Amino acid sequence: MRTSVVCLSLGVLLGCGNGLSPAGGVTGKWTASRVELSSTLDLLQFGGSVSGTGSTTSFIFPPTTTFSIAGTYSRPHLELTFSNNGTVISTFTGTVQDATHMIGVETSGGGTDTLIYVRQ
User: Which residues of the chain have pLDDT under 70?
Assistant: First the structure.
């Protein structure tokens, strides 16, 4: 019995560092970039709620868009809404892969883009 408890405890401890453990919170600065754009999110998580601000710099018109962020995070799923002056400009649906990466799809009137954000 004692051996089983020790083995189970050791297995749990080893599992926490193998990259398969659940991702942590999303508070912090995240960036994504591609040839045609760069996006930055400054997120603050409180429980399952997420808020913050962000900006996207496009090398095609318009050059820069700033927005407010509201959403939810239920590990590992993230749902964000980006708004500018009370108007929804896009949504982001993704998953937090680990402590420094999240991937998802941003949907706007112009279509969809797959983005990979990296925590700074």
Answer: 1-24
